[in-house]
Amino acid sequence: MSDLVAAVNAALATVIDPEIHRPITELDMVESVAIDDAGRAAVTVLLTITGCPMADTIESSVRQAVTSVPGVTDLDLTMSAMTDEQRSALKRKLRGGRDEREIPFAQADSRTQVLLVASGKGGVGKSSVTANLAMALAALGRTVGVLDADIYGHSIPQMLGLMDAFPTSVDGMIMPVPSMGMKVISIGMMKESREQVIAWRGPILDRALQQFLADVYWGDLDFLVVDLPPGTGDVALSLGHKLPNAEVLVVTTPQQAAAEVAERAGTMASMLEQKVIGVVENMAYLEAECPHCGETHRVDVFGAGGGAEVARTLTNRLGYEVPLLAEVPIDPELAAGGDQGVPLVATAPERPAAAAITELARLLSARKPSLAGRKLGVIPV
Predict the structure, then answer these.
(1) How far is CA 167 from the centre of its chain?
(2) What is the distance, to the nearest Å, from the Cα of residue 9 to the centroid of all Cα atoms in its chain?
(3) Residue 379 has what pLDDT?
(4) Whether the predicted pLDDT of 10 surpasses 60
(5) Which residues pair with 128 in a beta bridge?
(6) Which of 116, 171, 274, 373 could form a disulfide with 87 if both were Cys (CB 3.0 to 4.6 A apart)?
(7) CA 182 to CA 146: how far, in whole Å?
(8) 89-138: per-residue pLDDT in tens?
(9) Which of 259, 300, 277, 287 has its CA nearest to residue 353?
(10) What is the pLDDT of residue 154?
(11) Helix (H, G, I), strand (E, B) or coil at 265
């Protein structure tokens, strides 16, 4: 019978917690496994909290895993909840012994590429670029977290279909909400109602960002994509100090007015010793069918050259190359995807706007981040 118990434990090790993304056996969520002479299994699983939103998913996965083991004739499954002591032990395990308020992405040994998506002004489609870029990176097989740092104008929950989602808390540690292969957190998920207005001053904003970065269990990420608020205010300043090794992607549109303010966002990043890795020109052009010749032509609805101008100016101003990484054409379906809660790169990857963002994701995924300018935590002797 010991062999059958071992087989059941091996099957339970294949059940992954949908929020923490680790086997439930590794998280000490399996309290007991017993099997009688007739092959009837009695299993007790501990949920992280009472009323866990993923309880049904975990129960279904456990039932499927155990009943598929040859020799198991029946299953008596008990779903319980961890004690305060067990939750504290799980929290310590997940943090790997690190201090509670430590930001993992700020450590010298962090392998996560932190991308801050910035813009000089609102209305340039920065959040649409963020959501679609994160989705495209996830589709390439990278582990991706999305942090909505636009506290006042949070739109990531809407764009990823998470308006009714609420993160789970384990002994003060927050589990990001899983969505389409990504891990997502936003202040919009923590409001009592959608109509609630966030009106915080600088110090409270800073504490909220600290909590998002240090108290959220992000796990091992390849990329953390951060949607910054437009402009150069408190959030940009705060993240500049909290994420010294982050890199900045500047989003602009073709108009000269938009280009000028986008340059300020890039300059701000440089002042905070963050590297600007490139420029994305959103709403760059419209592909329209000519009523006269029937062919498709490029129409510069909002002018042309703004993205290239921002890239040139920042290259000269910062002293290193800041390339124009992508020109994303106008596509009504891009906005429709945001309203419907599913990014365009997931629903129609062949469309020009989605293809441009997917190519941007490939560029970012394939590159090897430079150590130049990174704070490595090494003290000369």
Answers:
(1) 14
(2) 32
(3) 44
(4) yes
(5) none
(6) 171
(7) 7
(8) 887 777 666 545 678 888 888 899 999 998 877 788 899 999 999 999 99
(9) 287
(10) 84
(11) helix
Looking at every residue in the chain, the average pLDDT score rounds to: 84
CATH number (3.40.50.150, 2.130.10.10, 1.10.10.10, 3.40.50.300) of 104-366 reads: 3.40.50.300
Number of Cβ atoms within 10 Å of the Cβ of 33? 19
Going from the C-alpha of 162 to that of each of 158, 171, 177, 348, the distances in angstroms are 6, 23, 8, 20
Q: pLDDT tens for residues 143-184?
A: 999 999 887 788 898 999 998 888 887 767 888 999 999 999
- The tokens for 118 are 């910035």
Range ranked top by mean pLDDT from 241-245, 262-266, 313-317: 313-317
In what helix (H) or strand (E) does residue 324 lie, and over which residues does it extend?
A: strand 324-328
pLDDT digits (tens, 9 = 90+) for 195-240: 665 555 556 777 788 888 888 889 889 999 999 888 766 777 788 8
CATH of 2-82, one of 1.20.810.10, 3.30.300.130, 4.10.520.10, 3.65.10.10: 3.30.300.130
Q: Can you name the residues that pair with 47 across neighbouring β-strands?
A: 81
Strand order in the sheet with 144-148: 177-179, 182-186, 144-148, 223-227, 113-118, 247-252, 275-282, 324-328
Task: Work out the number of other CB atoms within 10 angstroms of the CB of residue 121.
Answer: 17
CA 312 to CA 305: how far, in whole Å? 11
Q: Taking the model in full, what pTM does it have?
A: 0.73
* Residue type at position 249: L
The Cα 157–Cα 106 span in angstroms is 25
Measure the CA–CA gap between 293 and 62, rounded to whole angstroms.
62
Q: How far apart are CA 176 and CA 110, in angstroms?
A: 19
Contact status, residue 254 vs residue 302, Cβ threshold 8 Å: yes
* 32 — pLDDT class (breaks 50, 70, 90): very high
- Across the beta sheet with 74-81, the strand order is 30-35, 40-47, 74-81
- Indicate the domain borders of the chain: 2-82, 104-366
CA torsion through residues 222, 244, 118, 196, sign:
positive
